[in-house]
Amino acid sequence: MSGGVRIALLLPDLLGTYGDRGNVLVLEQRLAWRGIPSETVTVLSSAPEVPESCDVYLLGGGEDVAQTAAMRVLSRSPGLQRAAARGVPVLGICGGLQLLGTEFTTGDGVRHEGLGLVDAVTEPAGERAIGEVTANSVLAGVGMLTGFENHLGRTRLGAGSVPLGRVTRGTGNGHERAEGAVRGHVVCTYLHGPILARNPALADLLLEWAMGAPLQPIAEPEELAALRVERTRVRARNPK
Amino acid sequence: MTGTRRDGEQGETAEPDGERTAAGEGVPPPPRAADDATPTDPAAVPPWRVIAPPHPGGPATGRPLRTSLAVGAGRVVAGMSRRLRLGSGGMIGGRLALSLQPGLLGRLAAGRRIVMITGTNGKTTTTALVAEALRSRGTATSNVTGANMLDGHVAALMTDLSAPFAALEVDELHLAQVTAEFAPSVIVLLNLSRDQMDRVGEIRTVQRSLRAALERVPRTRVVANRDDPNIVSVAAGHPGVTWVSGGARWMHDASNCPRCGACITDLDGPWRCECGLARPEADWTVTADAVLGPDGRARQLSLQLPGHVNRINATFAVAAAAELGCDPDRVLARIADLRQASGRYATVLLDDRVVRLLLAKNPASWLEMLDLVSGHDRPLVLVVNSREADGYDVSWLWDVDFESLRGRAVLVTGERGLDLAVRLRYAGVRCEVVGTPQDALGRSGAEPDVIANYTAFRDLLARSVTR
């Protein structure tokens, strides 16, 4: 890792609907604050192949057509799958969660095979889940998760994955109060916000997996603690 | 060939395509086409087709009793609302009139030439520009307060029953309702980017709705942005389109083909997707200091409204007005003096301080406003709310390049001040979070620029005093 941590931002032209780029900015800045160099490799859908040598991979969300187009690109050039098989951390948001699962059905009723990095099947629901979400993470040290969800899909986990958290408010996966999916170092979630900005412990956990070493604690942005508290109290849109 | 544009015809022989109910009196003479031909090329035919305006008095005469009652009641309620300072009356009066007579919008529109303006950014400013442009030829009414759904349109048309022209801003998802009621003369399609996705939904849904709206009115002229693939996708199939090119700016919502999802790599160039969607040839082009018309003439474009984005908005206004027979030179002279549109870009007195008010409500408009403030070093106050009209989700703050504010004095406030502050910290921008816009203004230096999103802007404007 002589050139620093290599962060792969996958297909932002297809999967980057709403603030997903923020997760990359957060990883870059948290490394910079610690004096650790990083390099972000942006892989567009026009790229000839997906590199497998990066240290952490991020996928955002997108609309149905974009998501299925992303699926075609990622299955044609399996760099992400090979990296994940080596234990490299992967973060998938919203549409990213759905295509990292085993199977997803788009709004038009068509079933698509997913990449299968987590054991999760997604089907569309009658209405979109929109609003603030809080969940308690099952990952050690991550604690309470906060984020904003906006998705039509409902995701059922199989035996091969555990949820990222248990929903205390909001919809999440829409089954068994589960939010997101985790298998090994592959982490999937419906939370925007973006999730790594609102949940720095999760950002640092991904970086520790990427570097294979513990990170020095840093002073957090002073407004962050207040923001986390504020977002767990507010009631925006979610009826529950 | 569409109803509003008759190829090859000149002068006053063209018939308006709306209802004709009275003889034309007091109508300014339509510009003579020959005046605009380049003197060195007398044979040149102006490429815009000169159209006679509809006749004042037309829309107002021969109204059935029920229409008169509905309009009368609506006006009374609107007047009461204004007098009691409950609001501008734009919504409530229109709503009441509409409830008394369904279909009233179509009746009020009959016989007039109406330009509808839609898109995610620049609707209100462009509507003000179009209204001003149309006034170069006749009276024009407009929904200046930004009430951009049907009741707002009814209210705008009710305020001046004899105006032959109207410029009406319409919410992206409500254009289809409008075209179910009547066929506008011109529809202006500005742009489509992510905006309030928790309320409006996906861009694709908006595209479907806009396409359905256009399919109902094949004779309507569409003035559309050729640099936005989402707009090209909506308008490309329409029989009569005038394309405007101002240069591509916010591109994060357009780098994959809206039809098939393939990557579009050269958005600044003559892009063409494998599925057939391609960048059309421009009829009107914005250059560094001029606007290039379909007649090949470059006309100087000078505006009081700041920023390149308003040069684009102004060009849409010139193009739309030209479709209705307005003379581009007269239009340009008229819109040059416009300083603000519904408070956008206005310099006002707020808490005894001279303040410039700027509206930014999504990544595309923040890009433009940050560009605008980068040219000076005035203090900055940024205000972000997240009420229903703003959208509850502010994740989009992370799609804005706030890094350009490094080294500036920035005060942050609004209901989502904490989200914005965290975003700025990650961008390396020093900022101070304060409780309210009043507190922020109290602590800012002289003559600050205030950039606020929708409800925050609206509240500040309501408290301000025009200078």
TrEMBL record, chain B:
Annotated Mur ligase central domain residues: 117-234
The record's annotation in Pfam families points to: Mur_ligase_M, MurT_C
> What enzyme category does the UniProt record give?
ligase
Identify the residues that bind Zn(2+).
Answer: 257, 260, 273, 275
Q: Which domain of life is it from?
A: Bacteria
Q: Which residues form the Lipid II isoglutaminyl synthase (glutamine-hydrolyzing) subunit MurT C-terminal domain?
A: 359-456
Region entry Disordered, spans: 1-65
**Which GO molecular function terms does the record list?**
ligase activity
Query: Any idea which UniProt keywords this protein has?
Result: ATP-binding, Cell shape, Cell wall biogenesis/degradation, Ligase, Metal-binding, Nucleotide-binding, Peptidoglycan synthesis, Zinc
Low complexity biased stretches: 36-47
Instruction: Report the active site residues.
Output: 393
Q: Where does this protein act, in terms of pathway? A: Cell wall biogenesis; peptidoglycan biosynthesis
> Family, per the entry?
Belongs to the MurCDEF family. MurT subfamily.
Provide the function of this protein: The lipid II isoglutaminyl synthase complex catalyzes the formation of alpha-D-isoglutamine in the cell wall lipid II stem peptide. The MurT subunit catalyzes the ATP-dependent amidation of D-glutamate residue of lipid II, converting it to an isoglutamine residue.
Query: What is the official name of this protein in its record?
Result: Lipid II isoglutaminyl synthase (glutamine-hydrolyzing) subunit MurT
